[in-house]
Amino acid sequence: MTYITLAESKILLEKAKDTRLYMAILLELSTGLRRGELLGLRWQDLDLTDKTLCVKQSIIVNYAKKKNSNEDNFLVSTPKTKRSKRNIPIINDVIEELKKHKIRQN
Fold it and tell me: What number of other Cβ atoms are within 10 A of residue 1's Cβ?
């Protein structure tokens, strides 16, 4: 497995700063969320006062989708194990960025 270094993380965040993906990249790097967990994250899963996020769902690929079907390519799924459903602390800098992101979204 290949990991991104701290220096590479800083460069990635700097390059992504003014893009729509910045918040997702920042959350990914600061929390270690899996891709599906990140994609399944909703505002209601975040507690900015307690500085935590709760992993309650994940977005998964629907490999069973039949060709030319109206089924979705992606499905919302609950975490596979009890350990996967968890609360993750969020650092202050990320909380501030989340607040700015919420304002932009509204």
Answer: 2
Q: Which domains does the chain have, with CATH numbers?
A: 6-105 (1.10.443.10)
Instruction: Enumerate the H helices of 1-106 as residue ranges.
Output: 6-16, 22-31, 35-39, 92-105
pLDDT tens digits, 31-68:
999 999 999 999 999 999 999 999 999 998 877 766 66
Q: Which two tokens stand for residue 74?
A: 């992606």
Spatial contact of 15 and 50, defined as CB atoms under 8 Å apart:
no
36 contact partners, CB below 8 Å, separation of at least 6 = 58, 59, 60, 77
pTM to 2 decimal places: 0.83
